[in-house]
């Protein structure tokens, strides 16, 4: 296994309530020239956690941070007019907390960040620092 020192949270930048699957994201990322989906995990609207790229493989989700990180995305992150919005459902919030706790247990020295800490983007449309404080990670 490669060394992991960051866990980076994303949104799929899709409108609120639109159900997106791992297959959809895989197709978009292949269209963008990636070999497969760029994220390692995706949290669907109903809270289901799906696997994307295997953890052993370097992801394609955060420029300059891919080699030593895990990328996690929740479906949503925009309102109907495509403006950034925290659209996480109650189930997505619970699953995201659960997933981040598991990853943190597996990679205790890794720190958790929002994509917006490393790029001029709104992604993931919520304050990750505040969330990890609330869930004590
Ligand atoms: Zn992102």
Q: Could you provide a short overview of the structure?
A:
The protein is 25% helix and 19% strand. It is an alpha/beta fold and 137 residues long. The protein has one domain (6-128): Peptidoglycan recognition protein-like (Lysozyme-like, 3-Layer(aba) Sandwich).
Tell me what the structure shows.
By secondary structure, this protein is of the alpha/beta class. It has a single domain (6-128), classed as Lysozyme-like (3-Layer(aba) Sandwich). Helices cover 25% and strands 19% of the residues. The protein has a five-stranded mixed beta sheet, covered by helices on one side. Strand 3 and strand 4 (49-51) form a beta hairpin. It is globular. The structure holds zinc ion. Zinc ion binds next to loops.
Give structural attributes.
25% helix, alpha/beta, 5-stranded mixed β-sheet, 19% strand, Lysozyme-like, 7 strands, single chain, binds zinc ion, two-stranded parallel ribbon, 3 helices, 137 residues
By CATH, the architecture is named 3-Layer(aba) Sandwich
| CA gyration radius, whole angstroms | 14 Å
CATH class type: Alpha Beta
> What is the CATH topology descriptor?
Lysozyme-like
By secondary-structure content and strand pairing, the structural class works out as alpha/beta
Largest sheet: 5 strands, mixed
Shape: globular
User: How many β strands by DSSP?
Assistant: 7
Strand content: 15-25%
Number of domains: 1
> Count the helices. How many?
3
Query: What pattern of helices and strands is seen along the backbone?
Result: EEHEEEEHEH
CATH homologous superfamily title? Peptidoglycan recognition protein-like
């Amino acid at each position: 296994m490669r060394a992991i020192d960051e866990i980076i949270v994303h949104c799929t930048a899709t409108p609120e309530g639109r159900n997106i699957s791992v297959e959809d994201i895989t197709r978009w990322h292949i269209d963008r020239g990636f070999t497969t989906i760029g994220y390692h995990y995706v949290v669907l609207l109903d809270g289901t956690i799906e696997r994307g790229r295997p953890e052993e493989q370097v992801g394609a989700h955060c420029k300059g941070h891919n080699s030593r990180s895990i990328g996690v995305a929740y479906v949503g992150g925009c309102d109907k007019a495509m403006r950034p919005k925290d659209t996480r459902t109650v189930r997505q919030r619970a699953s995201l907390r659960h997933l981040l706790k598991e990853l943190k247990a597996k990679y205790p020295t890794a720190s958790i960040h929002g994509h917006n800490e490393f790029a001029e983007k709104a992604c993931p449309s919520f304050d990750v620092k505040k969330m990890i404080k609330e869930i004590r990670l």
